[in-house]
Amino acid sequence: MTSSLRAWIVVFLVAVAAGSPSTGAAVDRAALPGRQVKVAAIAIGFGGNHDKKLSLAIEHLETAGRQGADIACLPEEFAGTTAETIPGPTVNAVADLARKYSMYVVCPIREQAADGRQYNTAVLLDRQGKVQGRYRKLFVYWGEGLHLGQGDVPVFDADFGRIAILTCFDLNFDELWQQAERKGAEIVFWPSAYGGGSPLNGYAMIHNYYVVAVGRGNMIDNLGRTIDNVEKPRPQQSIVTLDLDRTLLHTNFNKEKLARLLREHRGEIVAEQFLDVESWYVLRALRPGVRVRDLCKQYQIETLREYRHRSRAQINDARAQGKPI
């Protein structure tokens, strides 16, 4: 197939996709309890015929958009392994759907960079279909024949929260998942050519972020538990609403302040769970407009992540100065 014919097919597919009216209406987040985000994992697999897979991706994005997804993630190199520029045919086609439904999309491609190098790249498109950023796979699998991404794991600020993207073989390198936590990621998207399994649950549990695994389409909460109650609007697509305000606290230094907060805000937030062995509380907002994180700041209560970060900094500072704790 010639490049001109391929480009014409892409334009045609986008035009067909644009023919139906948009139902991806903006959500008034202030009217919802906590900080909710609707996430779609489109697990249509790695590689294949470019035009067929792009057509399939567009159909899935139409479905996700109609379901009101805030962000949809496609798999690693979902439309084949022919390198393309950014922007380029695949990114442009997907960007049109992001714009149409006002949703973020993680669009992984094989990138043809301006310097002649090729990368396994996940492109983040914003609600206007613009390129907000990209993640170039840091740990490329043997035989991919691609150049390696450089630097640390980037994070991206969406209007609903902070996200990171890691890709496939990155699963095996724990420092990447730690970097995402250190930089404040609340969701890690993992587009992949395979399922990954239990290590994903482990990372979610120890770092207390959500993981959206787009190899098999499984969603994992910030306690490391696979979420079973997901929507399945079509085969190979999973949609779930995550509450990024769901907050973990350690019992250390927090018991009395937390008891006061719960007493004075009864009916507004709830201690959803107490994990006795871990000594963790799990808090969730109940009423629209209420956020646990805001109340924690008001009551000078540290989240579990804040507690760890402060403890690390203070203990390392004492170590450097030779002081006891």
Q: How would the global form be characterised?
A: globular
- How many individual domains? 2
Low-confidence stretches: 1-25
The name CATH uses for the topology of the largest domain is Nitrilase/N-carbamoyl-D-aminoacid amidohydrolase
Task: Outline the fold blueprint.
Elements: H1 3-17, E1 36-42, H2 50-66, E2 71-73, H3 89-101, E3 104-112, E4 118-125, E5 131-136, E6 155-157, E7 162-165, H4 174-182, E8 187-191, H5 198-207, E9 210-214, E10 218-220, E11 231-234, E12 237-243, E13 247-250, H6 255-264, E14 269-275, E15 280-285, H7 292-298, H8 304-321
Helix pairs in contact: 1-2, 1-3, 2-3
Description:
The protein has 325 residues and is an alpha/beta fold. The chain has two domains: 30-243, 4-Layer Sandwich (Nitrilase/N-carbamoyl-D-aminoacid amidohydrolase); 247-321. It is 30% helix and 25% strand. It contains eight helices and 15 strands. It has helices at 3-17, 50-66, 89-101, 174-182, 198-207, 255-264, 292-298, 304-321; strands at 36-42, 71-73, 104-112, 118-125, 131-136, 155-157, 162-165, 187-191, 210-214, 218-220, 231-234, 237-243, 247-250, 269-275, 280-285. Strand 14 (269-275) and strand 15 form a beta hairpin. It starts with a helix and ends with a helix.
